[in-house]
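Cross-posted from the bioinformatics board.
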Amino acid sequence: MIERVARFGTARKLVGITCEPRNDAVASGPVFLLMNAGILHRVGPHRINVDLSRRLAAAGFRSFRFDLSGQGDSAVRDENPAQESSDMADLLDAMDLLGTKWNTNQFVIIGLCSGAFLAHRAGVLDDRIIGAVFLDGYGYVTSGHRLRAPLKLAANPRRISNFARRIVREITGAEGNDERTTVIEEDSDLPVFDEPFPPQEQTTHELQHMLDQGKHLLFIYSGGVPEYFNHRDQFREMYGDLASRGDVDLEFYEEADHLYSWSRDRDELIGRVIGWATSRFAIGD
Amino acid sequence: MNVFHFGNADGPLFGAHHEPAPSNDLNRGVVLCAPIGLEYLRSHWCFRRLADRLAIAGMHVMRFDYTGQGDSWGGDDNASIDQWTRDVMDAIEELRDASGASKISLVGLRFGSALAYMAAARSEGIDKLILWDPVSQGAAYVGELRKLHDYRLSRWKFSRDTKVGSNGKQELIGRVWPTGLINGIESFSLSDQRPPVRDIYVLGSRDRPEYGAIGEHWPEPGVSRRIIAAAGDWDVLDEMDEALLAAPIEAAIADILSDNGS
């Protein structure tokens, strides 16, 4: 694996790391672009982008993890456009850089949280993107979600024990000294995002458009966004026949949290992405 | 800002050199020693702001990632106290070579303070050592990390087994560290010896008893201690994912290193 630091974009104000297999001869598939997750810099939550890029290299793929302008080590753009257009301009700059460096016009974009939203917008707009991995990307509450939500709440052992403790406290009048329990009850299902999602019809139409262009899409949801996604079946409820298309893959890691805080969850996630990449984008394509 | 890899070609480190304007070059260098694990992620933005601030004040500033952390080579298995201390020393040499600065100071945050302290003890000619919310006793620090790890587990709606098992590793809020590294952290004590540094400062975001104990038995000159109210609730359970923004301490560091606040 070979990593190099890259400065790119207008006035070379953006910073990223290219990662490629040691044997350049086998590195001829698409280039994977790893996006910022929220305000975290390019290494990602618990260094997941670094681990993923090095595993991709071991599988024969090249990748680029970088900071959007104003994040991590990248400076703010001088022209100071709106955030959305700035992010898109940064992504275009990255593809231009890599297209020249590696003589390629095929990219796969991987994003978590806000990175997934950007991946969606970019996938709609740019033909060079031939695949995308959306980690806790857009989701929409369905009737099935509403039905399952209280059932999941009732069936969760930890919630049952918390509820039982609360009842005991109320009956006995005990104040209790376990502040952590109180926190669990109050905030574990708080919404994660402030950014409003596009209308569901628009998202469905855009996904259809991407698939009609031959793009491969992998949707991965964690258990950390129960306010809008809580079951594998919900994907079909949201997107209908689109869910059955051969170029769509879905994973639901219910026991993983939004930031994949535990190493086993990260290992499983990375293994799934590598498996998808090798099955969808054979080296030499 | 220049960004690059440096150090051993078989295990390169990621570094960022923030340069002052030529007309404002004080011929001084500062190496920033980041925290480790989750605290590294929390403080990345704050360190970049601090580095920019110090460069504007006329200093050459080096930020870098330790082995197995951030964009540097290696993984958790490659991390050790000795390796990380050598990483700090490599960063000092890199900054000396890149800047030509005659005076080099070290600023360490949390366990980065411990690494700065150990590197200062093995280096020559370090001007100032600033210990920011320092980890003074490694065993207590590992205890805090375990508490945070258990708290995160307890908050999650599913029971998760994060015991790594018999392979000699422990998972602590996002990292899976070898037992040798954890033992090394636990055995660290900031009160052992005064490193050969001209001035040593302890900056705390709140008053903690252990800060008063740092250097209390060292020979003169001892340690300057300041408590500057700022973010830094490292052991507060609900703050563990918050990005650090500590402008008052950044300002104090700039003053100290500019000789305005000593």
